């Protein structure tokens, strides 16, 4: 018997080395034992039983074509649309194609637990939350003589690297606090700012783009991960830090709260460099047991780690695909 065919539409392919591609590849592997899976940047009309389209705006042409091929204006059978942070917190508010994708979809897939709140109330019944997953890495010994923070994300406005630059300047007199910054300069001006920050702040290093395995090792070896984003759909690097025993200091935006929980103690207001610097100093102080924050963050992250287990993601993904297949089988 021929297995059902699943197309995963990803605007980003392997060369992009970003979260969308990692999601597409991981899902293709999880589905492959039961389904014939293909990853492509768009749908060309070839017959598939299910299409999972990442990004409501960037995949909008394929989403619309799928619905039109079935002669429907909404709830197209077999169509799941995976909403990114830019979808949820920008595009569906302003872009007509992204808004149309919400109606065309049979299911709307989100990657963190606060995401359904961003949808119009009339569409929330379509929402399915699937936490992404990663392998667990054993915690490594970290020197108590210093604190090393790492921020991971290509340099672009959504990731708010300016907040990290400003915090590095505030902390430049603290010789026991180091900041590593990993990511390519997708915005040339931000790359120039990173270089200037490194020149002015000897304990800040911009390392540029790195392979995924090397990036994971850097996260594993850091005392804390900094995640300063303006908007997020459900950041890979947060779950990778949590599952490596590395606490997170994150901007208090919905995408981060949906990953770490409403009561997490490691938030700073978006754009608040002083707030980030203060948290880093408190984490450094806790290495000398004068402030419980660092150990509190470790404990809170450990409680969230099971959400990002591969078997949990695979179970939710298979359930989603079977829901999308159900109308065709009925």
Describe this structure in words.
Helices cover 41% and strands 16% of the residues. The protein has twelve helices and twelve strands. It has helices at 19-31, 60-69, 85-94, 96-104, 161-170, 188-200, 212-221, 236-242, 254-260, 273-286, 293-304, 310-329; strands spanning 5-9, 36-40, 50-54, 79-82, 107-110, 127-129, 147-152, 177-182, 204-208, 224-227, 248-251, 267-268. The protein folds into two domains: 5-132 and 309-329, Glycogen Phosphorylase B (Rossmann fold, 3-Layer(aba) Sandwich); 147-307, Rossmann fold (3-Layer(aba) Sandwich). The longest helix is centred in the C-terminal third of the chain and has 20 residues, at 310-329. The protein is elongated, with a radius of gyration of 21 Å. With 330 residues, it is of the alpha/beta class. The protein starts with a strand and ends with a helix. It has a six-stranded parallel beta sheet, with helices on both faces. The mean pLDDT is 93.
């Amino acid at each position: 018997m021929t297995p059902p065919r699943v197309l995963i539409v990803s605007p980003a392919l392997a060369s992009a080395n970003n979260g969308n591609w990692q999601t597409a590849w991981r899902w293709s592997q999880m589905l492959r034992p039961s389904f014939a899976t293909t990853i492509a940047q768009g749908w060309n009309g070839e017959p598939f039983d299910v299409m999972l389209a990442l990004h409501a705006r960037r995949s909008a042409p394929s989403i619309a074509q799928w619905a039109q091929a079935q002669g429907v204006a909404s709830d197209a059978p077999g169509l799941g649309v995976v909403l990114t942070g830019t979808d949820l917190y920008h595009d569906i508010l302003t872009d007509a194609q992204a808004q149309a994708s919400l109606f065309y979809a049979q299911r709307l897939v989100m990657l963190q637990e606060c995401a359904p709140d961003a949808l119009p109330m009339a569409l929330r019944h379509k929402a399915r939350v699937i936490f992404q997953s990663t392998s667990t890495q054993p915690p490594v010994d970290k020197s108590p003589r210093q604190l090393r923070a790492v921020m991971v994300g290509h340099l672009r406005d959504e990731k708010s690297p300016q907040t990290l630059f400003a915090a590095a300047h505030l902390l430049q007199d603290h010789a026991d606090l180091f900041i590593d910054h990993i990511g390519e300069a997708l915005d040339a001006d931000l790359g120039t700012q990173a270089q200037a920050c490194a020149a002015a702040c000897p304990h800040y290093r911009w390392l540029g783009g790195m392979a995924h395995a090397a990036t994971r090792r850097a996260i594993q070896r850091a005392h804390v991960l900094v995640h300063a984003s303006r908007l997020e759909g459900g950041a890979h690097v947060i779950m990778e830090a949590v599952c490596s025993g590395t606490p997170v200091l994150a901007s208090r935006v919905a995408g981060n709260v949906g990953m770490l929980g409403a009561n997490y103690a490691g938030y700073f207001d978006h754009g608040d460099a002083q707030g980030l610097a203060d948290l880093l100093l408190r984490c450094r102080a806790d290495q000398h047991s004068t402030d419980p924050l660092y150990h509190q963050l470790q404990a809170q992250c450990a409680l969230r780690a099971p959400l990002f287990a591969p078997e949990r993601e695979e179970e939710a993904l298979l359930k989603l695909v079977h829901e999308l297949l159900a109308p065709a089988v009925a």
